[in-house]
Amino acid sequence: MLSSPDEELRAELRTWLAEHPPPAVDIAATLADAATLRAWQHTLHAGRWVGIHWPVEYGGRGASVTQVAIYNEELARSGAPPLLGRAGITLVGPTLMTHGTERQRAQWMPRILAGDDVWCQLFSEPGAGSDLAALSTRAEQRGSEYRITGQKVWSSYATYADMGIALVRTDPAAAPHKGISMLAIPMDAKGVDVRPLRQMTGDREFNEVFFDDVAVPVANLIGPAHDGWSVANTTLANERGASFIWKEQVLHQIAIDALSKACADRGCTRDSVVRQRLAESWIDVEIFRLHNARTLSRLARGHEIGAESSLVKLFWAGMSQRLSDTAIAVLGPGALLTAGDDAGPEAGRWARGLLSTRANSIMGGTSEIQRNIIGERLLGLPREAR
Ligand SMILES: Cc1cc2nc3c(=O)[nH]c(=O)nc-3n(C[C@H](O)[C@H](O)[C@H](O)COP(=O)(O)OP(=O)(O)OC[C@H]3O[C@@H](n4cnc5c(N)ncnc54)[C@H](O)[C@@H]3O)c2cc1C
């Protein structure tokens, strides 16, 4: 049962969204439409609808976990596009709240909310993904500056980003987890080279980022020098927090409803096998919803989500892939078309889903890594040899 402040927030947001309809951004073209997305974030920010979980003193509304769930639900249902500045809002802001200096918070946080600065996450490297502590991008302190040399990869939205949070090695002699620091890097600094990578969806969401002796003030160090691993843990804990959980659940509910309707419209629900496949996907989404409701109520009572977030991430990745496989199986080959009369009214939607959901079992920690965490930390199985 939702309390009245929660229902009031829902009503306020619904009214606001009716007065400020989200731009109709084609998700397939989302990345080409960065200017529209920035403008949408400006509009949301003017209504105080960006980063509502941030404390009031930092420009948020101090919203509870339940209110964040309501917020994501209403935005998803309104068809609002994803926020271009979401890495700043979900990852950088909370990291600065815990580890940043007063000056860093004052300098960067208001610009993150307003959408004036888009941030990207510069963690992964060609030789350091799952084993992130193996990263080798170097930052040497020289006087009041760090000089950075190395390479990052899979950096989402780096082409649009004004700033990046990077993990860099500042003490090569220390143990892998110990000699790392976190730096904020202006993406227009001399020596930063961003090269987009084309994905199988045709998008250029992620990028290679090269640093050639890039100078960054020591004042851009976030948290203590050489202790960036602990700082990064704050960042990563926010990656799969409450915000992620509920939004994904609502988006999948919308998708299974749309798929069921598309099947009914084409008359394919007369086939019992089609009905079974749809039912399986519907059950997936319902399990996800019930599990998430339990997780959210625990978070609302002040519990940490901890290693259980791996369970959510693993199930979500599989569910999204099963749903897109089902869509193609039940709608038939026409669903693979992106244009033309045979592609049907949702032209390209399901084909795109089939391709884009492959990334879900890789990004934010692969499914194998999630299984390791579940085995070791939730089931108490012997630890993997390291
Ligand atoms: C869409 C997308 C967006 C991304 N955005 C960003 C971003 O913005 N910023 C950023 O820094 N990174 C980003 N990443 C990178 C992502 O974090 C890495 O791809 C991920 O951590 C896996 O690392 P890797 O690709 O180097 O694979 P590897 O770590 O090389 O893994 C290769 C294979 O080996 C398996 N494997 C590795 N270690 C183990 C083990 N110990 N036990 C069992 N199996 C293992 C993996 O599961 C995988 O199947 C993004 C990735 C994707 C797909």
Summarize this structure briefly.
This protein is α+β, with helices and mostly antiparallel strands and 386 residues long. Helix content is 46%, strand content 13%. The protein has three domains: 4-84, Butyryl-Coa Dehydrogenase, subunit A, domain 1 (Orthogonal Bundle); 119-226, Butyryl-CoA Dehydrogenase, subunit A, domain 2; 240-378, Butyryl-CoA Dehydrogenase, subunit A, domain 3, CATH 1.20.140.
Number of helices: 11
Characterize the main sheet: 4 strands, mixed
Number of strands: 8
Proportion of residues in helical segments: 40-55%
Output the CATH topology of the largest domain.
Answer: Butyryl-CoA Dehydrogenase, subunit A, domain 3
Measure the end-to-end span.
Answer: 46 Å
- Catalogue the ligands: flavin-adenine dinucleotide
Proportion of residues in extended strands: 5-15%
Q: How much is the radius of gyration in Å?
A: 22 Å
CATH architecture of the largest domain: Up-down Bundle
Overall pLDDT score:
91
Q: Which series of helices and strands comes N to C?
A: HHHHHEEEEEEEEHHHHHH
Biggest β-sheet: strands ordered side by side in the sheet: 1-4-5-8
Q: Please mark out the parts with pLDDT under 50 across 5 or more consecutive residues, or reply none.
A: none
Highest CATH level, the class of the largest domain: Mainly Alpha
What best-fitting shape do the alpha-carbon axes yield? globular
Helix-and-strand structural type: alpha+beta
CATH superfamily of the largest domain: Butyryl-CoA Dehydrogenase, subunit A, domain 3
